[in-house]
Design a protein that fits this description.
Layout: E1 5-6, E2 23-26, E3 31-37, E4 45-47, E5 54-55, H1 56-62, E6 72-76, H2 83-89, E7 94-101, E8 103-111, E9 117-124, E10 130-137, H3 139-148, E11 155-159, E12 164-167, E13 177-181, H4 204-211, E14 226-227
Antiparallel strand pairs: 1-3, 2-3, 2-7, 3-4, 4-5, 6-10, 7-10, 7-12, 8-9, 9-14, 11-13
Length: about 230
């Protein structure tokens, strides 16, 4: 038995926050439940809370929520991995852990409303795998994220055709999309070597100071494996 935990166990500040080391789903009481792959379940996934594991689709149905097949996969590489941030913004509540090869989450040149620098996604050929989440989004989740991410002005939601993303069950999510930088304030900030700066290479405080004098990264200005993900 795995006890659910409050979403606040993973604080969102400083950006991008923290997150579980498992797939998870958040209930209406803001409790985080572990989700694991299980080939014996009809959905292929189970929720590990209660006396026995429950098929994810059954767990969702008990709460009047959209089943897995009715959801769209969106790669979450920034703060949308963080349960407390997800709860504050109202979704997406179902997040499946994944590994991504050929992609990298990097600091952007812009900030969000509270002044914290935010992430963007770039292609990174040959880059070591990073752990992200695939948010399994309802239509309402997509509407919410379009607003939160400033679709059309900051980011755009596009099919993710570069890199390889694998869920914990070893499958690639079909129809995967991602919010990618559309405007200069959501393009990467250039590091000292001219390359985009990985989220793990600088803290929020460090990158906030750095970006004050740094230029946006431009493809082709420095040799290497990084490339744009353009809508």
């Amino acid at each position: 038995m795995t006890e659910p935990r409050p979403s606040g166990d993973w604080p969102e500040d400083p950006y991008p926050g923290t997150w579980p080391d498992t797939s998870y789903v958040v209930d209406d009481d803001a409790l985080v439940h572990v989700v694991e792959p299980d080939a014996s379940a009809a959905s292929g996934w189970v929720v590990r809370s209660g006396a026995a594991p429950t098929c994810l689709d059954d767990w969702l149905a008990e709460r009047g929520a959209v089943p897995l097949a009715g959801r769209s996969p969106v790669l979450s590489f920034g703060s949308n991995r963080c349960p407390s941030k997800v709860v504050r913004q109202g979704g997406p509540m179902l997040n499946l852990r994944c590994t991504a090869a050929g992609l990298s989450a990097v600091w952007s040149h812009g900030t969000r409303g509270d002044g914290q620098v935010v992430a963007t996604l770039v292609a990174a050929e040959g880059h070591e795998e990073e752990e992200f989440f695939v948010s399994m989004c309802t239509p309402d989740d997509i509407t919410l994220l379009d607003r939160v991410e400033g679709r059309g002005t900051g980011y755009d939601l596009v099919p993710l055709e570069q890199g390889q993303v694998l869920l914990e069950d070893g499958t690639e999510p079909e129809g995967l999309q991602a919010y990618v930088g559309l405007a200069p304030h959501r393009w990467p900030v250039a590091g000292e070597d001219g390359h985009p700066i990985s989220l793990t290479a600088m803290t929020q405080d460090d990158v906030a100071r750095w970006r004050a004098d740094a230029a946006p990264w431009e493809p082709g200005t420095a040799p290497g494996t990084f490339g744009p993900l353009l809508p």
